[in-house]
Amino acid sequence: YRCVDCFLPRVLCKKCTVIMHKHLPFHRQEEWEVGRGFWAGKSLGNLGLIIDLGHGGQKCVAALPEPRRMTIVHSHGVDEIGVRFCACLDDELESTPAALQLISHGLWPATWEKPVTAFTVEVLKDFHLLALQAQLPAQDFYRYLQRRTNN
Predict the structure, then answer these.
(1) Which of 90, 78, 94 lies closest to 43, judged by CA?
(2) Which residue of 2, 28, 33, 63 has the lowest C-beta tally within 10 Å?
(3) Are 27 and 79 in the same domain?
(4) At what angle do helices 121-134 and 138-149 cross, to 10 degrees?
(5) The domain containing residue 128 runs over which residues?
(6) Could you give the CA distance from residue 105 to residue 151 in angstroms, rounded to a whole number?
(7) What is the pLDDT of residues 112-127, one digit of tens each?
(8) Number of domains the chain is built from
(9) What's phi and psi for 14, nearest 5 deg?
């Protein structure tokens, strides 16, 4: 695997690629297709990367064992990535809502209750600037992101 977005990328195995990108979950990856003779796009979510919220990116000891599969929209496109939420309890014996955990990590949830889709702040800023400067409709921006994901 090689990273399209890293400066001076190295060819790495799957496990090392996931480890190296633990805190860069939206970098685009490519896998060498031996039989076809070219590099094909792969998302880190497809390689098994899981975003752990809370605890500095480490898994919460109280988190559910299975991460929630989420659709994350960012400036490189649309990815499905597993997200593991912190389930620690506060002084009032309540856990922080999933939406607030996403927001604290720069992801804006599409819904407040049990979000399964989120947008990076970066992609929201990109859309805002393009909508103001080029009068780009939201539907065209989303089509652009779909093409960036899998042209």
Answers:
(1) 78
(2) 33
(3) no
(4) 130
(5) 51-151
(6) 28
(7) 999 999 999 999 999 9
(8) 2
(9) -60, -50
